[in-house]
């Protein structure tokens, strides 16, 4: 009998456990922060929640405002023009090279294994439709979020952002907005309107 009571209490406690989804570190990727909390249910213990509480939870869920793609674009746009993204010290943003989602032209310098090289700056119009594809000096197969991180590390001299974070998803949403209506062509090469001679 005593055992049964303890079991019920444990069941109730785990039912109220709000899953933070933070095993990957960083902020959980759940729409407008925190509002979309997930409940972790123990199988068979859901009946332990008192009916009053169930009603309260249902009402809370019904009044929650859903996140929207447009809101994600707005947050992503802010990150795109942020000079502190990935704690970068270069005082540059994505917009420094990919202004308005296009290209400012020219080539960017990067170092690899001590060698300096010039890399043509592509336009981002249509770019999202070409991932995943092999990128970087090592030609690693990457998705768009990893590509964004490559630019954060190489050109902003910052730290990569957690791919599972809301920030990463919002930045992907914004970069993807430049490819609306474009044909999905994974693996296609970057688009450089005016290549610089001698640059990659
Ligand atoms: C200093 C200039 C510079 C900055 C700043 C910069 N990039 Fe880039 N970006 C490049 C260059 C150069 C490439 C091409 C890399 C290559 O060919 O390996 C590129 C490639 C890309 C691509 C892939 C395009 C394609 O079609 O393959 C994406 C997406 C991208 N950048 C997004 C971003 C985002 C998001 C940011 C900000 C976090 C950013 N870039 C900041 C220069 C820059």
What is the H-and-E element order? HEEHHHEEEEHH
> What's the count of strands?
6
- State the low-pLDDT regions, or none: 1-37
- Number of domains as seen in the coordinates: 2
Spatial extent as radius of gyration: 23 Å
User: What value does the average pLDDT take?
Assistant: 83
**Binned strand content:** 5-15%
Instruction: State the major sheet.
Output: 2 strands, antiparallel
Second rung of CATH, namely the architecture of the largest domain: Orthogonal Bundle
Helix/strand-derived category reads alpha+beta
Given the C-alpha coordinates, what overall shape results? elongated
Tell me the strand order in the biggest sheet: 1-2
Describe this structure in words.
With about 200 residues, the protein is an alpha+beta fold. The protein has 2 domains: about 1-65, no CATH class; about 70-180, Cytochrome c-like domain (Cytochrome Bc1 Complex, Chain D, domain 2, Orthogonal Bundle). Helix content is about 30%, strand content about 10%. The chain has helices at about 1-15, 50-65, 70-80, 95, 145-155, 165-175; strands at about 20, 40, 105-110, 115-120, 135, 140. The strands form 3 sheets. It has a two-stranded antiparallel ribbon with strand order 1-2. It is elongated. The termini are far apart. About 20% of the residues are buried. The structure holds heme C (HEC). Heme C (HEC) binds near residues 85, 98, 122, 135 and 171.
């Amino acid at each position: 009998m005593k055992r049964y009571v303890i079991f019920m209490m444990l069941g109730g406690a785990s039912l109220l456990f709000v899953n933070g989804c933070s095993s990957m570190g960083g902020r959980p990727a759940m729409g407008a922060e925190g509002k979309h909390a997930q409940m972790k249910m123990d199988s068979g213990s859901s009946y332990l929640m008192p009916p009053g509480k169930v009603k309260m939870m249902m009402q809370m869920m019904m009044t929650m405002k859903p996140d929207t793609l447009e809101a994600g674009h707005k947050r992503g746009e802010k990150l795109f023009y942020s000079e502190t993204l990935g704690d970068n010290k270069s005082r540059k943003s994505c917009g420094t090279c990919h202004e308005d989602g296009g290209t400012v032209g020219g080539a960017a310098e990067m170092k690899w294994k001590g060698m300096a090289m010039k890399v043509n700056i592509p336009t981002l119009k249509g770019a999202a439709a070409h991932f995943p594809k092999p990128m970087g000096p090592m030609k690693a197969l990457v998705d768009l979020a990893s590509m964004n991180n490559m630019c954060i590390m190489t050109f902003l001299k910052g730290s990569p952002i957690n791919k599972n974070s809301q920030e990463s998803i919002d930045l992907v949403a914004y970069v993807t907005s430049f490819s609306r209506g474009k044909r999905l062509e994974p693996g296609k090469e970057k688009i450089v309107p005016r290549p610089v001679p001698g640059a990659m």
